[in-house]
From TrEMBL:
Residues 126-175 form the RNA polymerase sigma factor 70 region 4 type domain. Pfam families: Sigma70_r2, Sigma70_r4_2. Keywords: Sigma factor, Transcription, Transcription regulation. Belongs to the sigma-70 factor family. ECF subfamily. CDD domains: Sigma70_r4 (cd06171). The keyword Transcription regulation applies. Residues 30-97 form the RNA polymerase sigma-70 region domain. This is Sigma-70 family RNA polymerase sigma factor. The keyword Transcription applies.
């Protein structure tokens, strides 16, 4: 078994060396040899197959660009390839999360779940919408993002560039205001 692993490492090392010299056929062979394993790692990090497939393409662009710097004396080829894939997936995850946290949130009230039991639910939804409109903007947006979209306090704090305790206060005050309005309605 150990000899087989050494043989596989040697084969991967030769392929990476050839890729470093600009050999496109070697890149294809390397892709066929390691893409399934690297894709599995990326999918576990991103939790989205489509995004993982895009990230895998970026991984192989990086491998193409960096293969000339691979030193087989510094370590086995598979950990080197896995590190590139893992780092790319983490970068992609952070970028996607950062984009999500900084997007302008338009129509936050339209994201309230629709009722499914007819007029009673419609009346409750209208009352909730009316009462939410009376809650101050950051509190209202935090409530909707937290309770309808599942955002964490930490994500909301990053979105509004404020401490987590401020978000907790906004949520608490917003819910108190909302409860008071709904009870009066």
């Amino acid at each position: 078994m150990l000899n087989r692993e050494r043989g596989a490492d040697a084969d991967l090392g030769r392929l990476i060396g050839a890729v470093g010299r600009g050999d496109r056929v070697a890149l294809r062979s390397l892709y066929e040899a390691v893409a399934p394993k690297l894709l599995g790692i990326i999918v576990r990090i991103l939790q989205d197959r489509g995004a993982a497939e895009d990230a895998l393409q970026e991984v192989f662009v990086r491998i193409w660009q960096r293969a000339g710097s691979y030193d087989p004396q510094a370590g086995a080829p598979m950990p080197w390839l896995v590190a590139i894939a893992r780092n790319q997936a983490i970068d992609r995850f952070r970028q996607d999360k950062s984009t999500r946290l900084t997007q302008v949130e338009d129509g936050v009230l339209e994201r309230l779940p629709d009722g499914q039991d007819g007029e009673a639910d419609l009346a409750q939804r209208d009352a909730l919408t009316t009462c939410l409109e009376r809650v101050e903007t950051p509190q209202r947006e935090c409530i909707v993002l937290a309770y309808c979209e599942g955002w964490s306090r930490e994500e909301l704090a990053a979105r509004y560039d404020c401490p987590v305790n401020t978000v907790k206060t906004w949520l608490r005050r917003g819910l108190i205001s909302l409860r008071g309005c709904l009870e009066a309605a």
